[in-house]
Design goal:
Number of strands of chain B: 2
Largest sheet of chain A: none
Strand order of the largest sheet of chain B: 1-2
Largest sheet of chain B: 2 strands, antiparallel
Strand content of chain B: under 5%
Number of helices of chain B: 20
Oligomer: heterodimer
Structural class of chain B: mainly alpha
Shape of chain B: globular
Strand content of chain A: under 5%
Radius of gyration of chain A: 27 Å
């Protein structure tokens, strides 16, 4: 893009490109740091990390954003169906 | 009608329907092999590319991944070539680059500790794309493969197959009350609040945030964005907000429920109706116990089923009210012409599976899910969405994102809307599960 600008000398363009690559490399390191942090198994102390520790202990995948992505959705549906049947039997008694 | 019949092969929306249905029909005919997916991994990063059974590596997915990449490239390049929006060869090269970014994003997202945080592939794909576009700039050859709208629309048509109407009755009337009464009220409230009170100029962003808050986070945001023909940056902003608040709500809602000693089922229904993403709902529900986990997940699932109807209504509203000249009332033909046709594929796939495929399997949707949806359409939908988010990242820049903040109005909308959602959902859940149907569970 820089070379299309007639007002800029090739040397300027080279330094701009160099700065962009430097930004990219810094960005890669930051992203890598973020990935290492989240993948390390760290949990915030006290109540703030309670849910996270629970997820780790019970191996609960909290990432799916749609119900179809939840591995054991069928079991949840079946479980609720059984809960309803039990409740119905109880109320009939 | 503008374009006439040629719209069927000239418009991206129609191509999304054709490609989506080619995949769906191939899945129904069982002529598609199992689609490869990146596996979960913890210590060994290469385990993501292995198929492990009973503790032993059975095979690796490199070759299936390459086959998938070329299959998707060929399928989508037919559309690109016929529409003449890009030279097919240039598109193919770009697509390969975007696909590699999608693989990297999935690989990061599938690290097990990252999954516990609730950070999905959508976020990583966006970040990877944004990193490139905001530093060295997205090279032209890569941009040629970043076909965000096409990927989103194909993904949505495939998602339609997962939306089975029979599921809305899983929790009886109380479930319907929480998921189907509150949700439309919250969407309408948020949209009116955004337009009338916050005076947000960007109505697409308002409806995306409203849909994400009230229906089901990222997936609803994608559907609303496509139905309202929103800009990519709007979707990026809404997804960013929903991801952050989902994690916060997953962390604090179960603690608050336990702190005040709320009934577990009521708490589960409350979280199922308010936390944006299903995975976070399951995690938060699990904190209250196994029954609460099930109830929370099923309430969220019932709410998820609304996504097709929501997309349809948003599309109609946009065509008839938002995207029209002042004082001009569009006739039926104009509405049809401007209507986003992929919505027909989205709703059509849902109707096909709900009222033809499931009944053909004696009404057992579990067989349908296990045979056609999970191994094929669901996995491919995930790939298309991941490609879309990587593409969005590649085409977005921070300056544009900042300019859409309108002085913090979108954030204000999310906070006010989510607060309203929390109060209303709690009230309706209490009414449904404690007052009207106390013995339903």
């Amino acid at each position: 893009m820089c070379y299309k600008n007639k007002d800029r000398r090739p040397a300027d363009c080279e330094s701009a490109a160099g700065a962009d690559w430097l930004k990219f490399i810094v960005g890669v390191f930051i992203l890598a740091g973020v990935i290492v942090f989240f993948s390390s198994g760290y949990t915030p102390p006290g109540v703030f990390g309670e849910v996270l520790r629970h997820n780790q202990e019970h191996k609960i995948d909290a990432s799916p954003f749609f119900y179809g992505d939840v591995e054991n959705m069928t079991e949840y549906e079946e479980g609720v169906r059984q809960m309803r049947e039990k409740a119905k039997e109880k109320s009939e008694l | 009608m503008k374009n006439g019949l040629s719209a069927l092969w000239k418009e991206e929306d129609w191509w999304a329907v054709w490609i989506g249905f080619v995949i769906i029909i191939a899945a129904l005919l069982q002529s598609v092999p199992k689609v490869p997916k990146i596996a979960n991994w913890s210590g060994d990063p290469m385990a993501a590319f292995q198929v492990i059974k009973d503790g032993a590596v059975v095979s690796e997915i490199w070759i299936p991944l390459v086959i998938l990449m070329f299959a998707l490239a060929v399928l989508t390049s037919i559309a690109i070539g016929v529409m003449k929006t890009e030279r097919a060869g240039r598109y193919l090269l770009g697509f390969l680059g975007v696909f590699i970014l999608a693989v990297i994003s999935y690989w990061i997202a599938n690290q097990v500790n990252i999954k516990y945080w609730g950070l999905s592939y959508a976020m990583w794909a966006l970040l990877v794309g944004l990193l490139i576009s905001n530093t060295i700039g997205t090279p032209g050859w890569l941009k040629a493969g970043a076909r965000t709208e096409l990927f989103i629309k194909i993904g949505l048509v495939l998602m339609g197959a997962e939306i089975l109407f029979k599921k809305i009755l899983s929790l009886g009337v109380p479930g319907l009350m929480v998921a189907w009464i509150v949700t439309p009220i919250v969407i309408i409230f948020m949209f009116i609040f955004a337009v009338r009170f916050l005076k947000m100029k960007n109505k697409s962003l308002a409806i995306i945030i409203a849909a994400a808050t009230s229906v089901c986070g990222v997936s609803a945001a994608i559907a609303a964005a496509a139905a309202s023909r929103a800009k990519k940056e709007d979707l990026t902003l809404a997804v960013g907000m929903t991801l952050i608040f989902t994690v916060l709500m997953m962390f604090f809602m179960p603690l608050a429920i336990q702190f005040v000693g709320m009934n577990d089922i009521l708490g589960a229904a409350w979280m199922g109706g308010t936390i944006d993403s299903t995975g976070a709902v399951v995690a938060a529900g699990s904190m209250l116990g196994p029954d609460a986990e099930k109830v929370a997940a099923v309430v969220k699932m019932i709410q998820n089923v609304l996504i097709g109807l929501m997309a349809f209504i948003v599309a109609i509203y946009w065509v008839t009210r938002v995207d029209r000249a002042p004082g001009h009332k569009p006739d039926l033909m104009e509405i049809w012409y401007r209507f986003p046709k992929f919505v027909i594929g989205f709703v059509g796939a849902s109707l096909l599976f709900s009222f033809v495929v499931v009944p053909a399997m004696q009404g057992d949707f579990r067989i349908v899910e296990a045979t056609y949806i999970k191994p094929i359409t669901k996995t491919l939908r995930g790939w298309f969405f991941c490609l879309a988010f990587a593409s969005i990242g590649l085409e977005s820049n921070f300056k544009d994102l900042a300019s859409r903040m309108e002085g913090g109005k979108p954030m204000m909308l999310y906070i006010v809307g989510q607060s309203f959602n929390l109060v209303l959902t709690l009230f309706v859940a209490w009414l449904a599960f404690m007052v009207i149907f106390p013995n339903v569970l």
